[in-house]
Design brief:
Helix content: 25-40%
Organism: Cellulosimicrobium composti
Shape: globular
Number of strands: 9
Structural class: alpha+beta
Number of helices: 6
Largest sheet: 9 strands, antiparallel
Protein name: DUF8094 domain-containing protein
Order of helices and strands: HHHEEEEHHEEEHEE
Keywords: Signal
Pfam families: DUF8094 (PF26366)
Number of domains: 1
């Protein structure tokens, strides 16, 4: 988990133009005493981490308390004090589904105990930290949470989470006592910039092997699940001359979050939305299929159209520039938040 932080300053030599007379004087002076040797600037220490592991635990506990309070009443009203961004959109939808079903078993379990934390060294705001949870009691995969402080007097809030993909290998990070550097959305020290990595993955989700970026990414189980669902719906709709489509779009309202890994790459987390559409011939009916979609559908009468909107979060490991490694998906969240029948 330890990486070497490079924060050295380079020595600079300045050459100034001088008049002919002064050149002569300088040359004469050089005969009697040596010219001063340029000295490099003192090595600057890297900025310290802005949180301790203990403080990160306090933040996680505060977020957990807010989530628990909202779950007790299935009311998201107080969540925005500790939850924001795609996490707030997803949790608000999950609470609505829990209220409609009278059952909270589809609300994502987010353990507060962390097995790994990534502490920022960002001295300005916003500041973003990351935490990988222990395995949930449900024995699902651990969660990667992204927590952000927007300004000096604001609380850290849960911006997003993903479920780590089964068997995934997380990249290594600097020890929390050293801290990890935030990576800008347009950082060019990577195989591709964080913003481009999310956009390219969306293209791969949309076009599969037909995407021009398909060879840039390792295969992942999320795409396998989506392909299986697409095939199941295509087969079901075929007798009614139906069609199935699923389109992913990077969320323009949410910049990606990224942090440096020990090898000079980055962990990149980005928000997307996706739209699933199932259409059949006039007179046919396309009913909701999953428990979440049924709850969001409510008592609407099925028609020949079913459209489902999702909020998505994806976490990617992006290697450093020049690497022969591919980008790999380490986790994702894909949660239905809206349903329409026209």
């Amino acid at each position: 988990m330890t990486r070497t932080t490079r924060g050295t300053a380079r020595a600079r030599r300045h050459l100034a133009g001088v008049s002919g007379g002064l050149v002569g004087a300088l040359l004469l002076a050089a005969c009697s005493s040596p010219l001063p040797t340029p000295q490099p600037d003192p090595t600057q220490d890297p900025p310290p981490p802005v949180l301790t592991e203990t403080q990160e635990t306090v933040v996680l506990d505060a977020v957990a308390s807010a989530l628990a309070a909202a779950s007790e009443t299935n009311d998201p009203a107080g969540l925005d004090a500790r939850v924001t961004g795609p996490a707030l959109a997803i949790r608000t939808s999950q609470l609505a589904v829990a209220a409609a079903r009278g059952n909270a078993d589809l609300v994502t379990e987010l353990p507060t105990e962390a097995q790994q934390v990534v502490i920022p060294t960002t001295q300005t705001w916003p500041r973003t930290s990351y935490a990988v949870s222990v395995q949930p009691e449900s024995l699902q995969t651990p969660r990667l949470s992204v927590l952000e402080q927007g300004a000096a007097r604001q609380n850290y809030r849960l911006w997003a989470w993903v479920r780590l993909l089964p068997g995934v290998t997380m990249p290594s990070f600097a020890d929390p006592s050293i801290g990890s550097e935030a990576v800008a959305p347009d950082d060019s020290s990577l195989l591709v910039t964080p913003t481009d990595a999310v956009a390219q993955y969306a293209d791969v989700l949309n076009l599969g092997t037909g995407s021009g970026f398909a060879e840039t990414f390792e295969d992942d189980s999320f795409r396998t699940l989506l392909a299986e669902r697409a095939q199941a719906w295509t087969t079901a709709l075929e007798p009614a001359a139906g069609k199935y489509a699923l389109t992913f779009t990077p969320n323009p309202d949410e910049q990606v979050r990224a942090v440096r890994t020990a090898d000079g790459g980055a962990l990149v987390v980005g928000a997307m939305t996706s739209q699933e559409s199932m259409t059949a011939e006039e007179g046919a009916q396309v009913p909701p299929d999953t428990e979440t979609i049924k709850a969001l559908y409510g008592d609407k009468t099925p028609t020949n159209v079913l459209k489902v909107g999702y909020v998505d979060v994806v976490a990617l490991y992006v290697p450093p520039a020049g690497s022969e490694e591919k980008i790999r998906v380490v986790g994702n969240e894909h949660v239905a938040t809206s349903v329409a029948n026209s």
